[in-house]
Each structure stands twice: as structure tokens, then as C-alpha cells.
What does this fold into?
Amino acid sequence: MKWRLILILFIIILSGSFVIHSCRKDQEDVPGKTLLAFTIPNGFPPPLYNFSKNPLTEEGFQLGRMLFYDGRLSKDGHYPCASCHHQVAVFGTYDHDLSHGYNDQHSNRNAPALFNLAWKNEFHADGKYKSLEEECLDPIQRPNQMAEEIGNVITKLRNDEHYHHMFKAAFGSDEITIERMEKALAQFMVSMITANSKYDQVKRGAATFTDYEQRGYALFQAKCASCHPEPLFTDMSYRNIGLKLNDNLKDFGRLVVTGKKEDSLKFRVPSLRNVSITYPYMHDGRYASLNSCIEHYGNNVQQGTTLDPLLTNGIHFNSSEVIDLVAFLRALTDSTLTKDPRFYLAH
It folds into this structure.
């Protein structure tokens, strides 16, 4: 009996060794990928992005960067993702109100800045998409944006030998699929982190606010933080902030997604990080300056059945307070991402 038990254990150990060896052999057949660490900035909550389904790697990041800047993802080759998401504006649109697209068309919204996406679980101003991977396909297929069919995009990529090498490096084989393209783009975009503004440096004890910024911070905490709480400077909610409906665009926001009348004219509360370099403002880019935005809350709020209750009486600032508040908002600017060569146009 004792020898039988020893024999069984020996067979189990031998089998285990074979399994381990087989796994190692399979891994040797796949080019080694360089895992990238995702560092959570001090004071930030845990990210919502599921990295277990799409681990960050250097190879995936580089493939995503190549795709992000590749005009072949659009119908005529002139509108890559980067045509609406400029690095100088923290990967947002900074020079016009609405996004530009195929055949000189305009979309009905201002392209949002792409940063700190790991802390989001819904995307677009109306929250239509529940994953970053799913969202990637929307602008490609929009007739007034990139205007291309996904099948055509995949065909173009498959006809490029360099992409075969990059997909193999990122995913272990040179098979080019929609899912892999989505994952690579998501790896590139989820790596866009901004958390080194003067505000962050003050919080770390590495800098000090000016008197203007300090007064502005106090005003912000008293009158703005309920919708734009630190450290992300958004509560991720959807709110009607009293913007008059644009008669040309007819954009009812969250209502289009949920079909609920109580969601009419509600849009996602944007982060105020880098707000000084992400103009023009609001979902349709109607305001060109921070002063205009502040003026809206004081005097231009449109009353309506879905208006956020916090804005029933508006939010008012005198001229001195506007100066102080703007000084603080400018202290939320972080140039780290805008100047990081890792995110530059891929060559």
C-alpha cells in the first residue's frame, strides 16, 4: 500500500512537471512581452478599468499609438483619431467648437480630452458606451467623423506587413482582428494620465498656492466641488446645467441613450483638470473662455424640468471672485502629458 501511494505521487509529480514544461514551451513560442506598470497617482481612488482583461504591455502600447495616429482608420485617410484629439490639448479638440470629420463635415459635439480614462466606466458625454474598447469603434464608423467600415480598416491593416509584426509582438501571433485593434487602442489611451498640476504639487507639499489661487480654491470648494469633487474633479454624474438647446444640433444628451424624459439635456460632468487648455467648453463647444462658463452659471442658466436642483438659483461670483476662481482653475493644468514624447506621433 505504501509503495502504491509513493508510485501515485511520483506519477502526479511527473505529470505536473510535464504540464509546467509544456506551459513554458508555449510561452517560449510567443515573443516576450514587456509588462507596463500602471501607477495610481497619490490620492486617486482605485481605477475602474479591468486590466486583467487587457494587461498593459509596451508592445500593446506602441501598437495602440501607431493606430491612434493612422489615417487609414478613416475613409479617406485624412482623419485619424488624433485629428480630433490633439496632444497639445491633452488629447482633446482645442481649436474649434465641434469635431471635424470626413468630407469637411462636423459632428454634433466637441471632442472631449482623453485623460484619466482608467477611472471611467462609461464613455461619451451621454454615457453610451460601457467600455473603452467598445467606444473605440464609434468614431471610426460615424459618417461625419472617420466614416469607415470596420471591415475595410482591418483589410487595410492586414495589407501592411509592419502591422503584422506589431500585432505579433503585442498578442503573440500576427492575426489582425477587431478585438485586438480595440485592445491596443485602449492600452494607449488608458495610459494617458494627468496628475502633476500645481494643485497636485501643493497637495504633495512640493509647491504653494498664490493668494489668488488659495482664495479661488476656497471658492471652488464652497461652490463647485459638489459636482467636481477632488481629486478627479468630476463626480461622473449626468446633469442638466441649464444650457439652452442648440436648435441646429438638437442634442438632448443622456435622453438619447436611456429614452427617459427625466434625462433630457443631461450630459456627463467633465473633469476640470487641465480645463485652461481644453477650450472651447461644454458638450458643443459653445463657450470659448473660462469667464464665459462662469458667467453662464451666474446669469444664463435656463430653467427647465430636468435642471439640476443645485442650479435653480444659479451660482454667482463677483468680479474679484472670478479672477480668483480662474487662477485656481489654471492651477489644475498639467503639461506632463502634453509634452510626453511617448505619446507623440508614431513614425
Q: What stands out?
A: The two ends are 68 Å apart (CA to CA). The longest strand covers residues 100-101.
